[in-house]
């Protein structure tokens, strides 16, 4: 696999970084790691920038369909790049298929798990938080649980779910939806079905629901928990039950001084990177909603632990039925939670079966077997 990696460099002459990249990632490390595979340029040559009026948006955009095969870039994109010397691809997410040649897949592994490293300010503060979490969980030998809780105001609004059901909530959520969706929100054919959304497991879990789930799964009230989240919707009201169930509940704000967070405040991506790192080193990671954060984090944890990182991904549709069942006993609820965590464990250690062209799952969330040789090379270096 390693011997074929250099072939991929033919399909890209350079990758241009925007200034924001270095705010989050270690740019020098990224460039150095990809040397010999991809030539990374910090900025475009002067003559190219002059051609487009020193404005990236003036560069003709090359639209690539989602999950395009590698052949699309070699046969269609690369000839245009050779002729024009520069192209812009937008949107850029999910533009490459999961089933790609091994040497290209290796480059994807190399980029994700070795080249991309958070910047020094972020990684330094993150490891301070990890140490503080381990200290706060000394009764469990430094092991703590991390929860990615998506209960921010915008998540609650755009999920089109109802929580306390009051008129004040309805007015507040409608204002946010109208601001975000514009005229689409006022369309007569738009139907909002909160009940159906909840039954289908599309509603963000409340802190109370997460707490009940964890207690049902056997986590005691002396479990140290790190809560990764943005600003929660009505935090004083909704967070209190979770804090009561788990007194050792911490956030990046509670673990740091205002001075320590100053450099990251106001930058949501940098704060999310901080949460990511603390979750990465937790004993257990709990994801309560979809999105890129848990998707990539699950894969990163599996990569670090050779596929054996514990992740709890609840069946939210089943959770709704259990929580709405007012006649269920606590013992029966606990039995159901034990079955749910056992199923989550079973799925968490499954390794994708990959043939020549049949990967059906994301390599970002399940990096093995394709990223196995990179993992082995990294651990060989550690052993020596």
In short:
GO terms for molecular function: glycosyltransferase activity. The protein has 384 residues and is mainly alpha-helical.
Task: Please describe what this structure looks like.
The protein has three domains: 2-95, no CATH class; 120-151 and 205-350, Rossmann fold; 153-203, no CATH class. The chain is mainly α and 384 residues long. The strands form two sheets. The protein has a five-stranded parallel sheet. It has a two-stranded parallel sheet with strand order 1-2. Helix 16 (292-304) links the parallel strand 6 (284-287) and strand 7. The protein has helices at residues 21-24, 27-33, 46-51, 70-84, 102-115, 120-136, 153-158, 167-181, 194-199, 207-216, 235-238, 240-245, 252-255, 258-261, 268-280, 292-304, 316-324, 330-348, 372-383; strands spanning 15-16, 40-41, 145-148, 225-228, 249-250, 284-287, 310-312. The radius of gyration is 23 Å and the shape is globular. Helix 6 crosses helix 15 (268-280), helix 10 (207-216) packs across helix 18 (330-348) and helix 15 (268-280) runs parallel beside helix 16.
Keywords:
384 residues; mainly alpha; Rossmann fold; 5-stranded parallel beta sheet; two-stranded parallel ribbon; globular; disordered N terminus
């Amino acid at each position: 696999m390693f011997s074929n990696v250099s072939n991929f460099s033919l399909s890209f002459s350079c990758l241009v970084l925007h200034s924001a990249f270095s705010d989050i990632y270690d740019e020098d490390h990224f460039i150095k790691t990809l040397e010999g595979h991809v030539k990374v340029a910090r900025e475009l040559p002067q003559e190219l920038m002059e051609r487009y009026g020193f404005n990236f948006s003036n560069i003709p955009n090359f639209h690539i369909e989602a999950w395009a095969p590698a052949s699309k870039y070699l046969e269609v994109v690369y000839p245009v790049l050779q002729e024009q010397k520069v192209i812009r691809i937008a949107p850029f997410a999910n533009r490459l298929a999961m089933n790609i040649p091994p040497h290209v897949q290796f480059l994807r592994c190399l980029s994700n798990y070795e080249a991309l490293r958070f910047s020094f300010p972020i990684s330094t503060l993150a490891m301070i938080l990890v140490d503080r979490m381990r200290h706060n969980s000394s009764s469990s030998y430094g092991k703590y649980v991390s929860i990615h809780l998506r209960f921010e105001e915008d998540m609650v609004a755009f999920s089109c779910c109802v929580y306390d059901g009051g008129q004040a909530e309805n007015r507040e959520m409608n204002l946010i939806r109208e601001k975000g969706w514009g005229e689409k929100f006022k369309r007569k054919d738009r139907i909002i079905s909160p009940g159906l959304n909840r039954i289908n497991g599309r509603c963000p879990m409340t802190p109370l629901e997460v707490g009940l789930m964890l207690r049902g799964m056997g986590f005691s009230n002396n479990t140290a928990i790190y809560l990764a989240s943005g600003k929660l919707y009505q935090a004083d009201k909704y967070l209190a039950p979770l804090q009561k169930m788990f007194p050792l509940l911490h956030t990046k704000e509670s673990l740091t001084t205002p001075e320590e967070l100053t450099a990251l405040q106001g930058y949501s991506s940098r704060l999310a990177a901080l949460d990511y790192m603390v979750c990465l080193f937790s004993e257990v990671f709990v994801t309560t909603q979809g999105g890129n954060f848990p998707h990539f984090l699950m894969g990163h944890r599996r990569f670090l632990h050779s596929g054996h990182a514990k992740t709890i991904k609840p069946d939210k549709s089943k959770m709704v039925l259990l929580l709405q069942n007012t006649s269920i006993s606590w013992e029966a609820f606990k039995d159901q939670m034990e079955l749910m965590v056992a199923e989550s464990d079973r799925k968490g250690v499954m390794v994708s079966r990959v043939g020549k062209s049949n990967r059906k799952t994301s390599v970002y969330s399940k990096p093995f077997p394709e990223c196995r040789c990179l993992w082995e090379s990294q651990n060989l270096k550690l052993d020596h």
